[in-house]
Amino acid sequence: MNLKRKKPETTKLNLITILDAVFIFIFFLLMSAQFVEIYKIESEVPQVADMEQKNKDIPLNLILEISKNKILVKSGPNENVYKSLKYSNNKQFHDGLNKIMINLKSNNIEEDVVILRPEKNVAYKEIVKIIDYISQTSTKELVSGKNKQGKVIKTSSLFNKIVFETVI
């Protein structure tokens, strides 16, 4: 009698076909992926301060309330309405908004913060256009004004520190 045992046959997996399928799948994933460039708007967190001012200067506290059909320009600690503009997407409206910002900047040359309060239904691209017109002069002319020390300052930058107020 033959008492030798036969070794069990080990089967080898054929991984070549699986690896081929994986590489083809990776190729199709790379080719079908959309490479999108994402832009962001830098915004600073609003600062909380006491209402008691060390000096008696009234802060500008510039606020733009943006809705679908109008923009309210408010200023001062009590948020008094400075100007109300009927919104339209044309050059005349944007130039008018830019002139208002130039006038405010010339009277408050050291201020550079604006608070935006957009409504939920305002399109993002419209907010970006408004930011463009309130951050720089549209004609690249210099705005001049006197600071607190009486020195004349000239700048082409308007209100370039944008703060978005939380909309609930």
> Terminal Cα separation, in Å?
90 Å
Helix and strand element order:
HEEEHEHEEE
Number of strands: 7
Number of helices: 3
* Poorly predicted runs of 5 or more residues: none
Strand order of the largest sheet: 3-2-1-4-7
Shape estimate: elongated
- Second CATH tier, the architecture of one domain: 2-Layer Sandwich
General description of the model:
- The protein is α/β, with parallel strands linked by helices and 168 residues long.
- It has a domain of 103 residues: Nucleotidyltransferase, domain 5.
- 27% of the residues lie in helices and 21% in strands.
- It is built from 3 helices and 7 strands; from the N terminus they run αβββαβαβββ.
- It has a 5-stranded mixed sheet with strand order 3-2-1-4-7, covered by helices on one side. The protein has a two-stranded antiparallel sheet with strand order 5-6.
- It is elongated.
- The mean pLDDT is 79.
Question: Would you summarize the structure shown here?
Answer:
27% of the residues lie in helices and 21% in strands.
Keywords:
168 residues; alpha/beta; Nucleotidyltransferase, domain 5; five-stranded mixed beta sheet; two-stranded antiparallel sheet; 27% helix; 21% strand
